[in-house]
Specification:
The complex is a heterodimer. In chain A, about 70% of the residues lie in helices and about 5% in strands. Chain A is mainly alpha-helical. In chain B, strand 1 and strand 2 form a beta hairpin. The chains are: A mainly alpha, B mainly alpha.
Chain lengths: ~450, ~325
């Protein structure tokens, strides 16, 4: 592969993975903020309003960083991937434009009202603005996932004589079942992260004997939502995504599972390291027949191995395999953590079970890792295609941008993002230290 | 259909210039007109609730360009690779400055972000102006149909002139905005008024110069377009002698509208005219995909209509009180 394309891929991977850390926070916390605001408004519950406004501060910091790191994502389609934009722009450009028009305005305008306008608007309108922020965050997520889903499984298009792709049906793109299951899985992942943040912060307050009025409710809310979300992440949403991958991207499935050779009654490897050179897994621990069952609902079904595909149509096995196993492994651990915590909660013993609170607090970073790993499976597993089966990544980059330019700007982004990450941590830690008990400052 | 898409896109960019224009103008000016920490905080507060919504217009416009004219998106964004990356970093610094300034009550912290906000706003405006100038002047096209000039090609006197003019025009607009948003008897309001008085003749002279230079660089072929500079001059005069701050802001907004209409009308039907002017370029027909355009147009137009509705509603509530 051309070195310019490699530089473009590294830049996109780096900037998108950094960017995504922040939308997880906004999409995961928005439902909590909306729920607390509506509850507080309806029951005249000042503690709930205070909770909502506290999480809104965390949300706002996430949102600001999400916006400034998100604009480069949209720009890179044109700057680094001009051939892709030129050939497939009429398809991928539409959901991206709709995201701006249908989601960003909603989110930013109503967030402005929520933060600045409490004294200007009625209580009902205030509660409505919290719900609108949630809607904006999730609709925005939908359009991005719909764009990605089209690149995974293109629908509603026609190839033109001049080699370009025309989107012939926008509804087909927006209503694609592939997109909706992916969206459900991605939102569940974000919600699960939000739940771990809320529960983990509550655990931190309880363990440190701070902000005592808020520790228990935070842990309770986080554990209830987290227990449900961790289950939904596996079934049905995770399961349906696997089935869609099996149907539309079988080479990716083989890469995810490290299945080099076709097998009737294919196993799932729980552990094991792929050895691409010798086309086998090293030290595997197998669950026999499980992959055939999960993919086809039949223990004896034949699953195609990587060897069945031409060498230039196979995804990079190592990264796809490891990312998938990290995601699934963490997802399983999340279920164990959240169900145990939920059991303790229902017995009324969670606030005193310090060992469980420690686990909840220390688990906070791991949903982020699981979300990022999931996206790595999706995007790395799609290779060597940028639009599955239609356009190769190698043909998609800008012919007029040299590798050196991209390396230069990637270093620029790295420096910029290091500072942004540092500032983000300072601000978040400060909000956590102030906590929901702190009086609001007039700005 | 192509023309309708061009008009909608131009309208979005126009809205962007008018809306984010005052943010940028406030940014460029606030180091000069706001002296105390309180005044600085007040100038941030004038744009606080609006700036992110205004910047969304830019994101939405870029997305719309992508959806309507993918070929132009590909050709211009890759051609302007380094300038656009620099613009991205400036947008980041600017966004962070506005959001982070208020988090600590510390003179060094605030001073740093004040300067960050001022410098990034100034450079962004300059960069956007230089970009518009280069679009009007035409761009050399490579064999793949993408812009293929050098950095030094972009830094020509005409484009730099448009860049500096943009800084002046938006500073005027920003001053009008500050004066409208703060109470009339405040010192900040008085200094904003002084800024208008000082900037006004400079804007007028620069406007005449840039208009003349543009007619040389890019001869106009739509005869009705002479109306736009007339509107521009009229609104500029109205801005100086307007009785109320609201009327003055309206006038500077109309002035920016006239500028954008001139620019868009001069370019039409090209999105990226090739250099020198008259040698063709990428026009709206070549840049779009006819089969996909209608659905994109309808979906985006409906969405924008809804945004217009609730944005007006929301802005009226927040604007009901002065800073």
């Amino acid at each position: 592969m051309d070195s310019a394309v490699i530089a473009d891929r590294i830049q996109f991977a780096f900037t998108v993975m950094f960017h995504y850390l922040f939308p997880i926070g906004t999409m995961g916390l928005a439902p909590f903020i909306a729920w607390y605001t509506v509850k507080g408004t309806r029951q005249n519950d000042e503690a709930a309003i205070r909770t909502a406004r506290f999480w809104a501060k965390i949300f706002t910091i996430n949102f600001a960083v999400g916006v400034v790191t998100g604009i480069p994502m949209e720009f890179q389609f044109g700057t680094n991937w001009a051939n892709f934009s030129s050939v497939a722009g009429s398809a991928v450009g539409q959901p991206l434009a709709l995201e701006g028009v249908y989601a960003f305005f909603l989110e930013s305008i109503f967030l402005g009202i929520f933060i600045y306008g409490r004294s200007h608007v009625s209580k009902g309108f205030y509660a409505f603005s919290a719900v609108a922020v949630w809607a904006g965050a999730w609709i925005s997520g939908f359009f991005i996932v719909a764009t990605d889903a089209w690149m995974q499984h293109p629908v509603g298009y026609a190839m033109l004589a001049n080699g370009k792709i025309a989107l012939t049906s926008l509804p087909a793109l927006l209503l694609s079942p592939f997109a909706w299951w992916q969206f459900a899985h991605v939102m569940t992942g974000a919600l699960l992260t939000g739940a771990f943040i809320v529960a983990g912060l509550g655990a931190y307050y309880l363990l440190g004997n701070r902000q005592t009025a808020f520790g228990v409710p935070f842990v309770r809310a986080g554990v209830i939502v987290g227990a449900i979300a961790s289950l939904i992440a596996i079934f049905p949403t995770g399961d349906r995504n696997s089935v869609n991958v099996t149907r539309y991207q079988p080479a990716k499935l083989a890469g995810m599972e490290g299945l080099f050779h076709s097998k009737r009654g294919a196993p799932i490897a729980i552990f094991g390291m792929p050895d691409v050179k010798h086309q086998k897994l090293i030290d595997p621990v197998y669950v026999p027949d499980a992959l055939s069952f999960l993919a086809y609902g039949n223990f004896r079904a034949n699953v195609k191995g990587l060897a069945e595909y031409p060498a230039d149509e196979r995804p990079p096995v190592d990264l796809t395999y490891y990312a998938y196993h990290v995601m699934v492994g963490l997802g399983t651990i999340f279920v164990a953590i959240m169900l145990t915590a939920a059991l303790l909660l229902s017995l009324g013993r969670l606030p005193r079970a310090r060992w469980m609170l420690w686990i909840l607090m220390l688990a906070m970073p791991f949903p982020y890792i699981a979300n990022e790993a999931g996206w790595m499976v999706t995007e790395v597993g799609r290779q060597p295609w940028i639009v599955y089966g239609l356009i190769r990544t190698a043909d998609a980059a800008s012919p007029n941008v040299a590798a050196g330019e991209t390396v230069f700007t990637t270093i620029g982004f790295a420096g910029m993002y290091f500072i942004i990450g540092l500032l983000f941590m300072i601000l978040i830690l400060r909000q956590i230290a102030l906590g929901p008990e702190a009086p609001e400052r007039a700005e | 259909m192509n023309t309708a898409a061009f008009v909608l896109l131009a309208g979005m960019l126009c809205a962007y210039v008018i809306l984010d224009g005052y943010d940028l103008g406030v940014g460029t000016l606030h180091l000069f007109i706001a002296r105390t920490d309180q005044e600085r905080a007040a100038s941030f507060a004038t744009i606080g609730p609006f700036w992110s919504g205004n910047e969304v217009v830019l994101i939405a416009a870029a997305g719309t360009l992508f959806a309507f004219f993918p070929q132009a998106y590909a050709a211009s964004f890759s051609g302007f690779y380094l300038p656009f990356m620099v613009a991205l970093w400036l947008l980041m610094v600017r966004g962070l400055s506005i959001e982070l300034r208020g988090h600590f009550r510390d003179a060094l912290w605030r001073g740093f972000w004040d300067a960050g906000f001022g410098i990034s706003s100034f450079l962004l405006t300059l960069l956007m102006g230089v970009t518009i100038g280069n679009l009007l002047r035409g761009l050399p096209m490579g064999p793949h149909g993408y812009f293929s000039g050098t950095f030094t090609f972009l830094l020509n006197p005409y484009a730099l002139g448009v860049g500096i003019f943009s800084v002046i025009a938006l500073a005027l607009h920003g001053a009008a905005f500050v004066r409208w948003r703060v109470s009339a008897d405040s010192e900040l309001g008085a200094r904003a008024h002084n800024a208008i008085v000082v900037l006004w003749p400079i804007t007028l002279v620069a406007y005449a110069g840039i208009t003349a230079a543009t007619m040389i660089v890019h001869p106009v072929h739509i005869s009705a377009l002479w109306l736009a500079p007339c509107l521009g001059v009229a609104s500029l005069i109205a801005a100086r002698f307007a009785r109320s701050p609201a009327l003055c802001l309206t006038a500077t907004s109309v002035f920016l509208l006239a500028l954008m209409v001139s620019a868009a009308g001069t370019l039409y039907p090209y999105l990226l005219p090739s250099f020198p002017i008259g040698s063709g370029g990428l026009d709206i027909a070549a840049a779009s995909t006819p089969a996909s355009l209608p659905s994109a147009f309808v979906a985006i137009a409906i969405g924008l209509g809804a945004v217009l509705l609730y944005a007006t509603l929301a802005a009226r509530r927040v604007l009901s009180r002065k800073v």
